[in-house]
Amino acid sequence: MAEAAKKLATFSWEGVDKKGRKVRGETSAVSVAYVNATLRRQGINPVKVRKKAKSLFARKKKITPKDVAIFTRQLSTMITAGIPIVQSFEIVGKGHENPSMQELITSIRQDVESGTNLTSALGKHPLYFDALYCNLVAAGETAGILDTILDKIATYKEKIEAIKGKIKSALFYPSAVVVVAFIITSILLIFVIPQFESLFKGFGADLPAFTLLVIGISRVFQDYWWLIFGSLGGAVFFLGYTYRRSIKMQHTLDRLILKAPIVGVIVRKATIARFARTLSTMFAAGVPLIESLDSVAGAAGNRVYYEGVMAIKAEVSTGMQLQAAMGNTGLFPNMVVQMVAIGEESGELDAMLGKVADFYEREVDDSVAALSSLLEPIIMAFLGIVVGGLVIAMYLPIFKLAAAI
């Protein structure tokens, strides 16, 4: 099916409907014959079908989680409005701006048209529809509430993507400033400081210790810049490579992130929010708790919490209550454990988990806003110290010479 999806093309067509009216439109398919067959099933007699030429400037875009969330929301709206699922796919596919997403939707539509259930059709594309997504859709199809479940999935994905965006924005700004500061400092040390050094040689006087220190650092950068930049690049690549392939590295780095000051607190709150939101959504959809915990672990986004949730699953499967298993991990605040306990006793676990998710999502919002306000003066001071220190080191001998004159 993946191979067929790659051969999809856009066809423009003209035809006559059952009332004798001329109609025209566009559709994505693998061949002219498929377009003709599809039109006839819709009661349209095709007169002219031709393949549209691709634009020289057409460029495929990557399918993002946001694209999947929009697709889910639109599909839910269409099904709620009573539009048949195949027609819903066609409408949503045509309205999507991303050509890659259009091809994906068309591929799923063709599977559904051929008699495959929606869960199996989505499961052929695990890169975009994970086990959590497919499990929820399966629950919706079984219970006959697919529109409601799709609405819950869309809400879930929108909230999860929003919280991921906040975490990225909190980390991106300081990281970008540090990288820019390093690049600027390297340029000054490699190209600018040597010019001052040659100027100072003509003074014939002793240079201040601070100036000598900066000149020494400059010489190291001039002689070993390739080693410095190579080592940093290699370290980043090594960490990224091993993190993707080593469970031990994932556990170590994720635990360090959780223990980091300020940022660790935000990541912990975001992870708890994801845990609560995911479990609430799956429990509300009627997915069994044990099965839900597998998907919840995968959605945690942190190896430490993944292992913690799998430990919870093992204990719950032996008959232990969820709140007791959560308390044993030591990863969840007492407030979260108590809310889960109340939910279990009252039979409203999904509602209580939803309240926990709402609370921690607001906490993440407030923490990110506070972090941004705190970082701005710190970053300005950092840049001032780094760049200002280099400038002062180079002008100290000039001030010293002027005072001697």
Structure, explained:
With 405 residues, the chain is mostly helical. Helices cover 76% and strands 6% of the residues. The protein contains 16 helices and 3 strands. It has a 3-stranded antiparallel β-sheet. Strand 1 and strand 2 form a beta hairpin. The termini are far apart.
Strand percentage: 5-15%
Number of DSSP-assigned strands: 3
Classification by helices and strands = mainly alpha
Unreliable segments (pLDDT under 50, ≥5 consecutive)?
1-6
> How many individual helices?
16
Mean pLDDT: 83
Task: Give me the Rg, rounded.
Answer: 30 Å
Range of helix content: over 70%
Principal-axis shape equals: flat
What's the end-to-end separation, in Å?
84 Å
Order of helices and strands: HEEHEHHHHHHHHHHHHHH
Widest β-sheet, arrangement of strands: 2-1-3
Q: Profile the largest sheet.
A: 3 strands, antiparallel
